Amino acid sequence: MMVAPVTAPILIRGTGLLGTSIGLGLRAAHYTVLLSDPSPTAEAIAQDIGAGIRLGDAGEDLPGLVIVAAPPEAVAVEVANALVSYPEAVVVDIASVKIGILARLLEMAADAETALTRTDLSRYVGTHPMAGREKSGPVAARGELFTSMPWVVCPAVDLSTGEQLSAETAVADAVQLARTLGASVHRMDPSTHDDSVALISHLPQVAASLVASRLQDAPADALALSGNGLRDVTRIAASDPNLWVQILSANAQPVVEILYGLREDIQRLITTLEAPTAPGGQADIAQLIAEGNAGVARVPGKHGAPPQSFAVVTVIVDDKPGQIAAVLNDIAEIGVNVEDLRMEHSAGHQVGMVEVSVLPGKREELAQALTNIGWKVVLS
Ligand SMILES: NC(=O)c1ccc[n+]([C@@H]2O[C@H](COP(=O)([O-])OP(=O)(O)OC[C@H]3O[C@@H](n4cnc5c(N)ncnc54)[C@H](O)[C@@H]3O)[C@@H](O)[C@H]2O)c1
Ligand SMILES: O=C(O)C(=O)C[C@]1(C(=O)O)C=C[C@@H](O)C=C1
Predict the structure, then answer these.
(1) Which residues form the Prephenate/arogenate dehydrogenase domain (predicted)?
(2) Which residues line ligand 1 (CB under 6 A)?
């Protein structure tokens, strides 16, 4: 268990984007990490970039904690195998959906033909880090992926009686794992988790994919005009289809309930825009945008704190190496804290735009100071 991090290694089963990111984060916190993946290439890349050592190359020490970071469809069997193979270890998974995996584990535990027992489930905890990327595989891994992001911890329960099956000591290990990687922990039952992620994760994925799919045949001249609006809405449309088939199929019902409501709103908008100047049309459009304003205002900032509006100072830089670092160095010397940062390229020009978010009260001061030392600054 995690109380003895140096002597009890942590085994990561599945060394793709998430597994390798967890390995990198745990290595940075000085844990001993073992890596295992059915793909020898994924395993070797994860080891090469410093996420741990391959299980096959490791010594005899048994893991105290096993993290199953496999695709959702493989998770239940991998969790069961780990619980049986390592009878002293706590086993957590990090899959994006929770109820289906728990139901499958309960089924296996009730089946006399399988080695898994209900008692074994006291060492299992379902979890879900709410952090990821639109890329997959170990090459895309980042050790700091989880910093300041939510991490849901769902103790296993009997789905008929609600009785908690995970031991509190196992839950504590799962919590410590999330905190070690810098995440903020949200304890939740698996069903509430699945309903919640349908809205805050699965709906955005579907919306991004639907919007981006409209671009497939768009004229290149139109796409050349793309600004931040399109990028903001479509980033996750680049996500892995194989992973999302599994996620959406496993959480279909809660997603469908939300899509029914969305379908009504889209139908209402179509009707309005077919005759935008008809009586009530303008108010209808304004209401749609205002309802969006009300929704986005409820999206929390870091650590679940209320959203904070930052002011953006845009610095125009030459599109060449070292420019972002130079801007950040100068900002550090000016003494203003950078709350967020993003980089944009201006279509067709050899310049980049570094968008720096700062506290609103610091905006003018920073813009003036950067201008004084020669940077081209735009206030938006
Ligand atoms: N991608 C995200 O943004 C994200 C975020 C949070 C949680 N998750 C969850 O993390 C898990 C892994 O997703 P990912 O994005 O790292 O995917 P990935 O495709 O990058 O990696 C998956 C890895 O699992 C391996 N694998 C396949 N079958 C396996 C098995 N039976 N046992 C062990 N490993 C197996 C693959 O070889 C691959 O290396 C999924 O359950 C996903 O739902 C993903
Ligand atoms: O930031 C991203 O790329 C993500 O899509 C991450 C994201 C999400 O926030 O919806 C996607 C799916 C995972 O289950 C958890 C996190």
Answers:
(1) 8-307
(2) 13-19, 37-39, 42, 69-72, 74-75, 78, 94-96, 129, 132-133, 136-137, 243, 247
